[in-house]
Amino acid sequence: MESRQAHRKNEHLSLATKYYQQAHAGHPFDQVRLIHTALPEEAVDEVDISTELAPGLKIPVPFYIEAMTGGSKQAMKVNRQLARLAAKYQLPMASGSVSVALNEPACRDSFRVIREENPTGIVLANISASASEEEARAAIELLNADALELHLNAAQELIMPEGDRSFHWLDNIQHLVQVLDVPVIVKEVGFGMNKTDVSRLANAGVTSINVSGRGGTNFAMIENRRNNQQDFAEIANWGQTTPEALLEAHVAKSDAHIIASGGITSPLDVVKAGVLGASAVGVAGYFLNILIKEGPDALDKVLVDWLGSIPRIITLLGVESFSGLQWAEYVLSPDLQNYAKQRRLL
Ligand SMILES: Cc1cc2nc3c(=O)[nH]c(=O)nc-3n(C[C@H](O)[C@H](O)[C@H](O)COP(=O)(O)O)c2cc1C
Fold first, then answer.
1. Is residue 54 included in any domain, yes or no?
2. Is residue 346 part of a domain?
3. Which of 40, 103, 112, 328 has its Cα between 20 and 30 A from that of 24?
4. For residue 27, what is the DSSP state?
5. How many domains does the chain have?
6. Which structural domain range is residue 225 located in?
7. Which of 9, 77, 97, 189 to mutate to test the pocket of ligand 1 (most atoms within 8 A of CB)?
């Protein structure tokens, strides 16, 4: 018999796959069009797709497997399959929130498997932004992690009957950034950030910020399905989409690396995120869906396709590297332009 926490982790996996397709109307990245050049003056094998997750933390590929799971038998199987692919294609991979493992030693192996399957790759440990210094250090140690992700999930917690109701995070984040010896990435979980959030995090010393916006996995919907006490369906569309959050981050003009995640479902989305200023791109729900519904071989094939397509699309923009995408040209749909104008982002 698995614990209550393990049951919750299994529910997240099953609801995240059940509702992934119907989570949102429309695909937010369709609101961004890239401008083709007929004269690329570039060759595919000259394109450099390496980038950085955080200052000094180099990665060979611009996308990675974003935080999902750990804490149950099913989570262990998912983590093992994802970690094998991460090792094969040199993709960084984040664990799901490690807090359950700190409280329940029996489930630690479901996280450790990420490092065991990928001894030399880049592994990120994930924990709440409210974690103490001791918990943060234990999370890093459990995975021998190269970086720590601190998640901001106020909307998710508020929908959960057993969730937190108090969210004073900034001082703790500032402290953790100062004392930890690995890079700290602060991330949302699919509701996006606004320009003030990005400025406040950067001013607190955070050098890598994942705006993780709306458009893919929808934790408002997932937690609402788990909540039998109160119906929060009205906030099913809460938050900034990932393109909106990237435009918000852009005007914050911080020196922090900006990471995109939330609704990334194709190599073109990865490139569009780079054009909107992302230095790396996390993918969670889309990869999980393929893994659970079609198996690891199907996900393997998707990863090969993405790795082949990204340099070709970058070539079509006449750009020589993923990090050079920020100079590529684009236009926004009327809706997104309207958002940007009202928010004074243009
Ligand atoms: C099943 C599942 C579990 C998740 N658990 C965590 C978590 O423990 N910590 C975290 O920071 N984000 C978690 N996330 C959020 C993702 O890391 C990501 O920010 C969000 O899903 C948006 O990306 P996507 O649209 O590609 O799924 C989870 C996502 C999924 C699908």
1. yes
2. no
3. 328
4. -
5. 1
6. 4-341
7. 189
